[in-house]
Write a structure and sequence with these properties.
Layout (H helix, E strand, L loop, with lengths): L4 H10 L6 H22 L30 H5 L18
Length: about 100
């Protein structure tokens, strides 16, 4: 057995789950089956197998950084209800 009832109860307590005895038993069996399956995967020889992070070839889809014309500070601040010439003025939120 890969996991014990006590470990299931401990994790349930950490997750603040109130499991009945029947639920703990069922969860222990289910988690044991999952962990046993994963342990079988450890038996495979993966020497020479490339690490796969995606099922398809993914390349960086970001565009190149290039300087473009944008709003001047005055134009951007003109839309704000209150500004001090350098930034927007907003009400103080924290003390």
């Amino acid at each position: 057995m890969k996991i014990t009832r006590e470990e299931v109860q401990h994790v349930a307590k950490l997750a603040r789950l109130d499991l009945t005895v029947a639920e703990v038993d069922r969860m222990t069996g289910q988690l044991d089956a999952i962990l046993s399956y994963v342990a079988k995967l450890d038996e495979l020889d993966t020497t020479g197998v490339a690490v796969t992070t995606h099922t398809q070839q993914v390349v960086n889809a970001f565009r190149e950084d290039e300087v473009r014309p944008s709003l001047s500070r005055e134009q951007a601040l003109a839309n704000g209800p209150e500004q001090n010439g350098e930034s927007f003025v907003v009400p103080k939120v924290v003390g």
